[in-house]
Each structure stands twice: as C-alpha cells, then as structure tokens.
Amino acid sequence: MAINKLPQVSMPELLHGDAEAHESWHAFEIMSEYVGATEKLKKITPAVSIFGSARTKEDHSDYKLTEEIAHLLSDAGFSVISGGGPGIMEAANKGAYAGVGPSIGLNIDLPFEKIGNEYQDICITFKTFFMRKVMFVKYASAYVVMPGGFGTLDELMECITLLQTGKTRKIPIILVGTAFWTGLLDWLKNTLVAKGMASPEDLDLIQVIDDPKEIVAAVFKHYEARGFQLSLEEQKNQLYL
C-alpha cells in the first residue's frame, strides 16, 4: 500500500512563510490602530498638539511654562494633545487636565519608557510611530513646540513638510523658547534657504512666541476669518497624510 508523504519544506522556506504571514497580520494591526484612534479622537476638535522633551523635570521652567500654556488652551475650549509620556508631555497633559478641555495622550509603547502619565482623559497607546504621528497632525488645529530633542524635531519637521507640500491645511506652528530655537531658525534661513533647498516663505509657517496668553491669541487670530471647520478639500487631504 502506497504511503502519501508530506512535501519536504526547507527551514528557509518555513521562515519566509512565517515572515509573510507576520507582515499580513501587521497590516491588520496598523488598520486596527487607525480605526481605534479615529473613533476616539473624531469629536475632540479643535485641538492643539504640544511637543517637547520627555527629559524635562517637573521643577524646570519649561515644564511649568508648558503646564500654564496647556491650562490656558484648555480653558479657551481646546483639547490638548501630547505624547502621553513624561517631561513636557506630562506638563501638557497636567495643564489641560486641570482645565475645561480634554487632556489627550497619544502614547507609544517603548521598552525604556513607562506608558502614560496620570493626567489623561483620553489615553491611546500605539505600537507604530508613524500612525501616532498621523494622529498628532490629523486632529491638530495648531502645533505648540517646546524645547526638545530628536523626537520633538522629528514632529516639527514632519508638520512643516506636510504644510509646505499642501498635504494638510495651514495651521499655526508656534515655537516656545526664543533662546532655544534661534540657532535652528538661523541655520534654516542662512543655510537651507540661502542654498535654495527651501523657500523663504516656508519659514513664514513658523512663529516664535514665549508668552502663554499671546500663544492662545495667535491660534484664535489664525482662525478668526475662516473658523476651525475643515473644508471638503481639506477633509479629503487629511485622508492622505
């Protein structure tokens, strides 16, 4: 009687098959993150995203300033979005949590950082950086950028690029800390723009404001003529961030 044998499959073939299956399931994970986040965030506009260093201590002047800015924005009717972690992110959530508008944390699962500070009305945790960054921009009516490191610079440049290329609507980008940001702004002007790698008007997308009340006023001034509601064209663009 003939015995049917299973086909012989090499280990590299098995590993390759597992990798393909993992990639397919990863795509569903990304879809799940997107759907879950949009369901939680679709009603929180207008919102302001605040960025800055995770290493800033609670007794630092930048922490206290961030807390004040977030509190004023919250009391003015804005939701406040941060990365949900420590440092400036915590200060932003803490200030908003004490105010009227909701405090939102878009947390990232990192091996060296505890997930989530305690000052969040809405807490969402992402596995992927890029999906988290989409949510920072998708629901922001303004960016407030405190002193920070590579992550802060990454978010800042991402937003400038999206505005510059028309992939998202024009929103205020406000840098806080004149002394901190002057060197970068000088380099952008005297190197990038001077060498033709950026246009002078690209720098007009950025404002530097240190006073908390003036920051809130600048956001309202930007929208006083057009309102916070997205046009149909802007809504369409937001789908392709």
Please tell me about this protein's structure:
Helix 2 packs parallel to helix 3 (88-97) and helix 2 crosses helix 7. Mean pLDDT is 89; it is low at 1-15. The protein has one domain: Rossmann fold (3-Layer(aba) Sandwich). With 241 residues, the chain is of the alpha/beta class. The protein has a seven-stranded parallel beta sheet, sandwiched between helices. The longest helix has 31 residues, at 11-41. It is built from eight helices and seven strands, in the order αβαβαββαβαβαβαα. Strand 5, helix 5 and strand 6 form a beta-alpha-beta unit. The protein has helices spanning 11-41, 61-75, 88-97, 129-138, 150-164, 178-193, 212-223, 232-238; strands at 47-51, 79-82, 103-108, 122-126, 142-145, 173-175, 206-208.
Q: How many structural domains in the coordinates?
A: 1
Estimate the strand proportion: 5-15%
Q: Which fold name corresponds to the CATH topology?
A: Rossmann fold
CATH architecture: 3-Layer(aba) Sandwich
Taking all Cα atoms into account, the compactness measure Rg is 21 Å
Largest sheet, order of strands side by side? 4-3-2-1-5-6-7
Gross morphology is globular
Characterize the biggest β-sheet. 7 strands, parallel
Distance from N terminus to C terminus (CA atoms, Å) equals: 63 Å
Overall pLDDT, averaged? 89
Count of DSSP E strands?
Answer: 7
- Pick out the low-confidence regions: 1-15
Helix content: 40-55%
Compressed to H and E, one letter per element, the order equals HEHEHEEHEHEHEHH
Q: Supply the CATH class.
A: Alpha Beta
Can you count the helices?
A: 8
Q: Could you say which structural class the secondary elements and strand pairing correspond to?
A: alpha/beta
